[in-house]
Amino acid sequence: MSLASEKSPKHCAERKLDYYKLYKRIFYIFSTLLSTLLLLILIVWLILRPTKPEFSLKEASINQLDLPSLHTLNSSVQFTILSRNPNQKVGIYYDELKAYASYKGQQITVQSTLPPFYQGHGDINVLTDSLVGAGFPVASSFRYEVQRDKMVGKLVLSLKVGGQVRWKVGSWVSWRYHINVHCIALMDFKEIPSGPLSMKQETQCSTSV
Predict the structure, then answer these.
(1) What is the CATH T-level fold of the domain 54-208, as seen in this structure?
(2) One Pfam match, by short name (predicted)?
């Protein structure tokens, strides 16, 4: 006569109930920890209230603006932008920044990649670069727009910078946020062969995060 080694249905049901309680307890602990962490991050965020960085266009000049054909442009633009972190307790990481110049809503240079950097509390950083467009495609109306601005004596150039930022509070670093910076340079028009077109005064840039 041999002993039965199989477990009864009642015993199996009890084992399944124990596993269910264990999984439920682990899920409850994990959910509680996650909720506490998210709440802590939210409280810190609301207390510190990070302010978006401020940008101003310090210098800008157009060294070349030639139209070899009706639909192509050779351009060279140089700029200097000041970036300031107005926060006293929040640092900012800048990632994947790209800049380009536009005129009358038309992009006139290729995008240039700016090096990533970290900006401490209240720090000011200088961003400078040269933007070029060799045989850059433009609309057929571009030549007309340039000639009209020559007659008026003023040229309005747009400099745009886009990328991603991360906020740093202590050792905690946030996820990435997209940032867009738009700067306007007003220049007195003159023939470029006699010298570059340069802006006259520093201007504040608009920033969205």
Answers:
(1) Immunoglobulin-like (2.60.40)
(2) LEA_2
